[in-house]
């Protein structure tokens, strides 16, 4: 009997602690869904997320499929006449099925676009998360210790980093460390945490003057507890806004690097598709090869921006 009463008491305590948080999340979701732009961004991101997780379910062929020859294993080679027809425009069963046509190697464009979504999502989310993990803590520390040597040191580092041109610095960094997806993510994160740091610092400078922070100091709370227990929860919504924007910027940066030839060519990506069409000289001849990867880059970057702008409206009480 005592055990049952204890379990009931624990359950009630759990509900009492989490119900306000769940209610806040529900209200925030309700405000977010009022922004059509944010909902459209979520839908686009959901589609690309499905492409990333189960590309074989959506792609018409495997990555090994080749026009005229079909799925492997196949021993035959393309004839000279067949090769002259590549890249082939969209075909719907005659002589093969390729809804968005093929490239110069006979690979299906739609298949490549779908399988490349995982690279874009991985780079965008990983780089955005890394930039937030660097920028948000530094912004919190800089703002809390405003006008001290700690703040000055962090801000001088930010000033130096702002003086470096983004793309040339990223190109040099990736070229020195090697061209692979991990180094590209690190390079983008190193150059994209600055806005996070500056904005979070400004918000922290305002929050540290609030009465609840003063009360925590009087109660004997340590600086670390005040920063990460009392101030950080109030800047997290703003950090999510910049995470979305950094993810979009990372995808665009990776596409630019791939177009310049600084990308991991062992992985499929939309930027590499654009680089291949430019290198092959088919920019003005094969529109079905050029438009899909460019449109995919535009849509996924726009989706992140849509979500970021909508979250900014939701988290900003003045709006």
UniProtKB/TrEMBL annotation:
Where is the protein found, in the record's own terms? Cell membrane
Q: Which CDD domains match?
A: TM_PBP2
Q: Which Pfam families match?
A: BPD_transp_1 (PF00528), OppC_N (PF12911)
Query: What Gene3D superfamilies does its record include?
Result: MetI-like
Q: Which domain of life is it from?
A: Archaea
Chief subcellular site? membrane
* Annotated membrane topology: Multi-pass membrane protein
Example GO BP? transmembrane transport
Give the matching InterPro entries. BP-dependent_transpt_permease, MetI-like, MetI-like_sf, OppC_N
Q: Does the keyword Membrane apply?
A: yes
Write out the GO cellular component annotations: plasma membrane
Q: Locate the ABC transmembrane type-1 domain: which residues?
A: 117-308
Q: Which residues cross the membrane?
A: 36-54, 120-145, 157-176, 182-200, 235-260, 286-309
Q: What keywords would UniProt list here?
A: Cell membrane, Membrane, Transmembrane, Transmembrane helix, Transport
Q: Which family does it belong to?
A: Belongs to the binding-protein-dependent transport system permease family.
Q: What is this protein called?
A: ABC transporter permease
Q: Which species does this protein come from?
A: Halorarum halophilum
Q: Lineage of the source organism?
A: Archaea, Methanobacteriati, Methanobacteriota, Stenosarchaea group, Halobacteria
């Amino acid at each position: 009997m005592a055990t049952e009463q204890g379990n009931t008491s624990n359950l009630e305590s759990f509900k009492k602690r989490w119900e306000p948080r769940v209610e806040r999340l529900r209200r925030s979701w309700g405000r977010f869904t009022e922004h059509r732009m944010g909902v459209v961004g979520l839908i686009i991101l959901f589609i690309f997320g499905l492409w990333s997780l189960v590309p074989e379910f959506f792609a018409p062929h495997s990555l090994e499929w080749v026009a005229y020859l079909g799925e492997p294993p196949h021993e035959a080679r393309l004839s000279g006449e067949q090769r002259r027809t590549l890249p082939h425009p969209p075909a719907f069963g005659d002589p093969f099925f390729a809804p968005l046509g093929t490239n110069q190697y006979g690979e299906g464009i739609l298949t490549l676009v779908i399988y490349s979504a995982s690279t874009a999502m991985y780079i965008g989310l990983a780089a955005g998360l890394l930039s937030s993990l660097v920028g948000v803590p530094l912004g919190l520390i800089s703002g809390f210790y405003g006008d001290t040597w700690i703040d000055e040191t962090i801000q001088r580092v930010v000033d130096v980093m702002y003086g470096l041109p983004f793309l040339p610095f990223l190109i040099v960094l990736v070229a020195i460390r090697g061209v692979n997806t991990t180094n590209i993510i690190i390079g983008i994160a190193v150059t994209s945490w600055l806005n996070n740091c500056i904005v979070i610092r400004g918000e922290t400078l305002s929050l540290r003057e609030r009465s609840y922070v003063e009360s925590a100091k009087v109660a004997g709370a340590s600086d670390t507890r005040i920063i990460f227990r009392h101030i950080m929860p109030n800047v997290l919504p703003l950090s999510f806004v910049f995470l979305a924007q950094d993810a979009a910027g990372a995808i665009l940066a990776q596409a630019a690097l791939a177009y310049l030839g600084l990308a991991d060519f062992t992985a499929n990506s939309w930027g590499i598709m654009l680089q291949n069409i430019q290198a092959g000289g088919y920019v003005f001849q094969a529109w079905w090869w050029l438009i899909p990867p460019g449109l995919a880059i535009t849509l996924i970057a726009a989706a992140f921006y849509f979500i970021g702008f909508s979250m900014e409206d939701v988290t900003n009480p003045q709006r």
